[in-house]
Amino acid sequence: MRLRHSFICAAALASLALAGCSGSNLVPNTASGGGSDSKGGGQPIPSFTQFTDIPMPSNSSLDMDRSIIFGASDAWHGRLVMNSGGTPAQMYDFYEREMPNFGWSKVTVVRADISVMVYDRESRVATIKLQGGSFAGSTVDITVSPKG
C-alpha cells in the first residue's frame, strides 16, 4: 500500500514538473506570460500559467519539493508552495485584493506573524498561509480542496 501511495505521489509530482515547464516568466495569471528565460543550466523556469483560478505574484518561484497538485485548470486540488520576494504584509494585501477578482469569496482571515486566509469558490475552498521567508521575502502556502 505504501509503495502504491509513493508511486502515485511521484507520478503526480512528475506530471506537475512537466506541466509547469512552459518557459514563461512568472507573472500574475491575469497577464499573459512571455519570454523564454531559463535558469543557469538552460532549464525553463516553472510557470504558474496553468493555475488560471488563483492569482500568482510576479516575484514568486514555485517550491517543487513542497508542492503537489492533482487535476488541472480550474479543477485542481492540492498544495502549492511558493517563495516570494514580497513581504508577508505585501502578500496579504495582494491576495486580499486579487482573490475576489478570480471569483473567490472571503470566509475568514487571521492577520498575524503567520497569516491565514480562507476563501471559497463554487465547490472548492482555498487556504492561504503566509509567513516570513528564511532570509527575506515570504513563503506562500496555498491549499485547495473540495468543499465539505
What does this entry look like structurally?
- By secondary structure, the protein is α+β, with helices and mostly antiparallel strands.
- It has a domain at 55-144.
- The protein is built from two helices and seven strands, in the order αβββαββββ.
- Strands 1, 2, 3, 4, 5, 6 and 7 form a seven-stranded antiparallel β-sheet that branches.
- A hairpin with a 6-residue loop joins strand 2 (68-70) and strand 3.
- The chain starts with a helix and ends with a strand.
- Residues 9-46 have low confidence and may be disordered.
Proportion of beta-strand residues? 25-35%
Structural class: alpha+beta
Unreliable stretches, pLDDT < 50, 5 or more residues? Answer: 9-46
Oligomer category? single chain
Concise summary:
The chain is an alpha+beta fold. The chain is built from two helices and seven strands, in the order αβββαββββ.
Question: What are the SSEs and their pairings?
Answer:
Layout: H1 2-20, E1 60-62, E2 68-70, E3 77-84, H2 88-98, E4 105-110, E5 115-121, E6 124-132, E7 138-146
Antiparallel strand pairs: 1-3, 2-3, 3-7, 4-5, 5-6, 6-7
Structure characteristics:
7 strands; globular; 148 residues; Lipoprotein; signal; alpha+beta; 7-stranded antiparallel sheet
